[in-house]
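On clarity, I found the account of how folds are encoded harder to follow than it need be. Since the whole study asks how a given chain folds, the encoding of that fold should be made plain. For the editor and my fellow referees, an illustration may be useful. An entry of this sort, consisting of the sequence and the corresponding backbone structure tokens, reads as follows:

:::
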Amino acid sequence: MIRGGTTSVGLAAATIAKSHDITVASTSRRKERQPILRQAGADYVFIDTGAIANDVRNALRGGADKVLELVGTTTLRDSLLCVREPGLVCMTGIVGDKWSLEHFSPMEAIPTAVGLTTYDGGPKDFMAMPFQDLIDQIVAGKMQVHVGRTFRLDEIVDAHRLMESNAAGGKIVVLT
């Protein structure tokens, strides 16, 4: 499951997972974004109210195997409840604009047999990324890049505003 599925990272993650025949569930706070998630490969779409664990557990027969947490601390506790045992939640984004957890008790928040990890995409991971393989899949039409909007370089301020509003619906491309 991808929490924050309509972010550019979420859309890319869904596309990559689908290319490996993985069942994908994605979330969005806005119902009108469901088609974007489906186009990226989501088999299940959940409208994120902040408390979707029961819906996820019911739809996915006990929960997701893994959750990619892109929203961050505002949904982390609920994401931990979305996972079945043994499962894993990887927090790698904080688009929810809250950087820390208040009153976090790991023994209460993390269910038994569920793991919590983080990923920051540092230089070592960046260099290990199989970019050529991804490019080859895109060129062959096996994988799709979801472009939300294209800007000219002189429109960079508008591009940045769109990025901050989290309303692009895909990657923002700036042409020089």
Remarks:
- The chain has a mean pLDDT of 91.
- The first helix runs from residue 8 to 19.
